Amino acid sequence: MGPRPTTPPTATVVEIVTADLAKALAFYRALGLEVPDGAEDQPHVEVPLPGGNRLAFDTEATITSFTANWTPPTGEGRLALAFGYATPADVDAAHAALTSAGAPSEREPFDAFWGQRYATVRDPDGTHVDLFAALPAT
């Protein structure tokens, strides 16, 4: 690797390229993110995340508009998103709400040995979305 930039980045945006923007935005709304009304009609959408970062969504058509040879990836992805909640009950409720809305459950809520209530669902494009909260001290 070459030399580091002299100025660090000032923002973080994680981007999801989606096959069906409406389904993706519905999933992330059900997760509790503030997705603007009417965003389904846009080619690019950004929503705020806790801590000042953003989550962006682009349609496959948007990506191919400036990257002519791009094709959607196949197989398992290498990215997982994780969203923290205030309580273990919130993890259970989020998992139940998402799976009731049709999200596949990858991992039912459980008490992990590392001290968190933890669960995993998949978004409409197959991205793993982890849900977690600290367990009460014993």
From TrEMBL:
Organism name: Pseudonocardia lutea
UniProt superkingdom: Bacteria
InterPro entries (UniProt xref): Glyas_Bleomycin-R_OHBP_Dase, Glyas_Fos-R_dOase_dom, VOC_core
Name listed for the protein in its UniProt record: VOC family protein
Limits of the VOC domain: 10-134
Gene3D superfamilies recorded: 2,3-Dihydroxybiphenyl 1,2-Dioxygenase, domain 1
